[in-house]
Fold this protein.
Amino acid sequence: MEFIVKSFDQLTTSELYAVLQLRSEVFVVEQDCVYQDIDGNDQKAIHVLGYKNNQLIAYTRLFKPADYYEYASIGRVIVKQGERKYGYGHDLIRFSINTVQKEFSTKMIKIGAQTYLRKFYESHGFQKVGEDYIEDGIPHIYMIREYFI
């Protein structure tokens, strides 16, 4: 898989369309969750696009500290359903963590993770903080990863 990192203004209309299509495919259709995906935060984010054979199959959006949470953040973590068996989620989160380190020079990352993915994120150094919560009808937890630069 090849990763590309772009700001919102650098995304082509075709790339943006592919991102929104993938997010809708996974978060709205697959997870059967009606929610407002286009939330006004994409313009502040750095976008990580993962391609395989020229097809967008993975994606995250990254925020500098205070743009989403008090710490840097990784969100909208997606791997296309048919591609998850290859471990691309691990590649995507490692690349996203490294990009946060490089772009924001910060030692803390906070995420709002779907609860069922807790072990996945723990395998990448995240630890649960605070109480469980429900977002858009889905159980979530906050997690923080601290690293040293």
Observations:
- The two ends are 26 Å apart (CA to CA).
- Strands lie at 2-7, 46-52, 55-63, 72-79, 108-114, 127-135, 138-146.
- The longest strand covers residues 55-63.
- The chain has a mean pLDDT of 95.
